[in-house]
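Researcher: Next sequence.
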Amino acid sequence: MHPARIPAEYWQHRILMAKAMGMNCIALYVMWNYHETSPGVFDFRTGNRDIEAFIRLCQQEGMWVLLRPGPYICGEWDLGGIPSYLLKYPDIQLRTDVANDPRYMSAVARYIGELGPRIEPLLVSNGGPILMIQIENEFGSYASNPAYLEEVRQLWLHEGVQGPFYTEDGIRQLEQNRTNVTGGAIALSNGDAEQIAAVRQEFPAVPAMAGEVYPGWLTHWGDETFKGAAVDIAGTLDVLMQLRLSFNLYVIHGGTSFGFYAGANVDADSGEYQPDITSYDYAAPISEQGVATSKYMKYRGVIARYLSTPLPDIPKPIPTISRKGDQALMPELCTSIWDNLPAALPAAQTVDPQPFEFYGQAFGFVLYRKKLQSYRNGVLNIKEVHDYATVFVGEQYVGGVSRAFVPEHDAQPLNVTHHAPLVVPRVSLSPDSDVSLDILVEGMGRVNYGNAMIDRKGILGSVTLQDTGGSSDTLTGWEVFLLPMDTAFIANLCTVCSNPRKAGLFFKAILPLDQIGDTYIDMSGWTKGVVWINGHNLGRYWNIGPQKRLYCPAPWLRQGDNEFIIFDLHQTEAKPVELARGLS
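Model: Next structure:
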């Protein structure tokens, strides 16, 4: 389980849930980019970022810890946990040794230098609960570079962290690229008893375990259903327990990729971009909301048969609330993105559109604006949109471009194209007037796995406009407006809406509560956007599904009035929003 995906108020509950299922150890990722949001600026204290507190809580509840601090973690997390500020370098290389890219390794050294002193007192050798520390993650699936793995190990040693260390890989990747480290144990992704036996034969002096046993699976936007529901690892667990082999469930509890932190994949066969949904429920034994599922009860029974003492009672479920029908929220138009634009970047920076990272922005949206002279109509070709754009000529929405595949029934009414030029219709203008071409680009999750991880956001190539006569012009000289949609931006929204018919609107609803509880915000009536509750970013929603509801934890609600803010890229008419008790 990942502290970054669980509200800090629920850490103890989730740890006790794992203990009651029969676990004696918590494996946790540390997401580097969650703690260093800009170069040299670290946060290991606020909200759910206090890793030391989480580890001490594990020890308090009698649990050991496996620490998985990266620097790369995958985890269906934006850029696999690596900070996006590194992508400002056009020629950056990630996950490589100092000889290949000293800029990357310098940043890694800074990160481990900050984290190391926090971790060292918590090692088992110093009376803490940390049994082992992982070096990188599944590096065998990425490359073969023993020098890099050794450099990462040496950085930990320099901070006084002597291990024990271990690595994590699929068995074929391990055998092919030999990605274990000196003195380190081996953990196997998708591991089982047979694979442990094979590794012990291949590496007879090295301890081995099943480092990731998958009780579910990840889900992308546009998948037909939530993945992993049919997985049953009862037989695998039975054999591992019978043979007294060490194993780790990935994940026993997934939680939520709140905010903009959900990652993405690129399909190995088609090359299609596949952004991850906001929920990290993963069909795990402990649901996103902390419920003991039927799988939980089954696996608890398997494990209990091999233990000499009874398992502790399952913690009581967290209370939930719902609002349906006449009690549903009815948001009202609040303002628009167009009425909240910051100053444009200096023209010298914006001759050609550049990605977010070149402007120093990690997440959110960027508006690219170009003044057109004597516009009539034509074909707009945006070479590379990462990842979703809505396009306007003047005040009129003319279509969208999506890097991810959008099913035809969802794309057609919105004129959203996929990897194709956008036919821009005629727009009525006064003769010889200039008009703005606005391209509002949403950066979705950065690729977190494989060799396509250099995944910048925004417009990455040229933009051309072909007129009805067939001539094509490359558009240069852009105004660029940075819209990170961070806490400060949302808190300072104005309340003016000069054109309620131009999509890109914010809606607000007030929810009065006498009693709080966990809930899910049902966005079935909306198209694509983001939801905030009392300033907390619940994450993205998208009508292509399969996720239609966003988890809202009770600690982010309060008795009295609660403020919901919705930003939708397409909707100009508000729809009711129900509160539900579950993800589906």
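Model: The CA atoms of residues 531 and 566 lie 5 Å apart. Residues 3-304 form a domain with the TIM Barrel fold (CATH 3.20.20.80).
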